[in-house]
Design brief:
The protein has 24 helices and no strands. By secondary structure, the protein is mostly helical. Part of the tripartite ATP-independent periplasmic (TRAP) transport system.
């Protein structure tokens, strides 16, 4: 049986299963296992299932075993734990409160503070969903109580939450690095400047919004002194220290990404207990949340590894590369088509699902054009970041909606995100047109 045909049918089957809400891990593993069995069973031409049992089980179990025992994969529970422990120790909230005090007098300052707070949270935790959930509980209710426009109060946090995908550490960068065998440390550093550019773009959107509609962001009427600002800044020192450890340590060659994760978890735990903000009960709750979230990610990653091995067996990727090469599109056309595919998938699937489903095909294609995989990783993560706030299935939007409840209908949140999506597309264009923006820091890495 033609392996390419099996591969195409497999992709259609996965998309169909996802459409009926089968969990991504089960869809990938089931389709890959059945597809592998079919290929081996028809290897001699006739259907001989007895020849397929052993090679199928070997491919399935060896690939999932190798992934789970990957050293790089240990970063995921460490960085997830870092975010949960930092939240329980009130380190992440200190970032927002510091930004809140410094920006309060600026029109739209609280909305800007929420974006800055999301950026600070992203520099500690690698999850956009966790960032949106945490900051949403803090920022959106406060803005609504102050009389902020409902769209601005929710959309600013939903958009800011996406920064967790791009600003290091990032779970998406870790998974991308494992599956493409690229340096995760280099990917982390490559995300710094595009992440900062995205953050500045969101602040610019808020500034324009409030300038055109001042009534949407009532001014803060309280009194804030210089001493208040410096006290707030000092209280946020643990977050700044963690960012220096993660990014500075990796850039300076002091730590690998995994070592930076381990050291950061130890530092945030010690700091939390020393400041009296972290208790044994809250520490245990953070570890429990970490275990649940990590298990979900590991299941998806293990299933994806099986699926990648199956796709390699079908030789679908070389066929697609050959077809695209024969069509001779230039790099700009290729990247625009890839972007459109990711944006379309982002309307319906979660980021990890999109990544593991598309990488087996996209990476060989990009490599055939001689494009840098570190830069391409930043482009992919930016596209997945946009998908988090794109209707109809913008995960961050649903997270914020669960926080504010019926007070703000979900369509109002999506309508407020139009401005942020516009700046996201502009930033994406800059990242794609100027690879040096992503590669500048990794190129100077020790």
């Amino acid at each position: 049986m033609d392996g390419t045909l099996v591969g195409i049918v497999a992709f259609a089957a996965v998309i169909g299963l996802l459409a009926i809400r089968v969990p991504i891990a089960f869809a990938l593993a089931a389709v890959a296992t059945v597809g592998t069995f079919v290929i081996f069973a028809f290897r001699t031409g006739a259907f001989t299932p007895e020849r397929a049992y052993r090679p199928t089980s070997s491919l399935v179990f060896s690939n999932s075993f190798d992934l789970i025992h990957s050293y790089d994969l240990s970063m995921i529970p460490l960085f997830v734990a870092l975010g949960h422990i930092a939240y329980r120790a009130e380190i992440t909230t200190a970032i927002y409160h510091a930004a809140r005090v410094w920006l309060a007098k600026i029109p739209g300052g609280v909305a800007m503070a929420s974006v800055v707070g999301c950026g600070g949270f992203s520099a500690i935790s690698g999850s956009s969903i966790a960032c949106a959930s945490t900051m949403g509980r803090i920022c959106s209710p406060e803005m609504l109580a102050m009389g902020y426009d409902k769209r601005l109060a929710t959309a600013s946090v939903a958009a800011g939450g996406t920064l967790g995908s791009l600003i290091p550490p990032s779970v998406l960068f870790i998974i991308y690095g494992i599956f493409t065998e690229t340096s995760i440390s280099a990917l982390f550093l490559a995300g710094v400047l595009p992440g900062i550019l995205s953050l500045l773009g969101f602040l610019f959107v808020i500034w324009l919004w409030v300038r055109s509609r001042p009534q949407d962001a009532p001014r803060y009427e309280g009194t804030i002194t210089g001493a208040d600002r410096w006290r707030a800044a000092v209280r946020a020192w643990p977050a700044a220290a963690l960012f220096v450890v993660i990014v500075g340590g990796i850039y300076g060659g002091v730590f690998t990404a995994t070592e930076a994760a381990a050291v950061s978890v130890a530092l945030v735990t010690i700091t939390g207990f020393a400041q009296g903000k972290l208790t044994l009960a809250s520490f245990w709750a953070a570890l429990r949340e970490t275990a649940i979230q990590t298990t979900s990610i590991f299941l998806i990653a293990a299933a994806a590894k099986i699926f990648v091995a199956f796709i390699a067996l079908t030789r679908v990727a070389p066929e697609i590369v050959g077809a695209v090469t024969d069509a001779e599109p230039n790099v700009a056309v290729l990247m625009i088509v890839i972007a459109l595919i990711y944006l379309a998938l982002g309307m319906f699937l979660d980021p990890i699902g999109i990544m593991v489903l598309t990488l087996p095909l996209m990476v060989p294609l990009v490599e055939s054009y001689g494009l840098d995989l570190i830069w391409f990783g930043v482009v992919v993560v930016k596209l997945l970041e946009i998908g988090l706030i794109t209707p109809p299935v913008g995960l961050n939007v649903f997270v914020i909606s669960s926080v504010v409840g019926k007070e703000v209908p979900i369509d109002r949140i999506f309508s407020g995100l139009v401005r942020f999506l516009s700046i996201d597309i502009i930033v994406l264009g800059i990242i794609m047109a100027v690879p040096a923006l992503s590669l500048l820091i990794p190129a100077t890495m020790q």
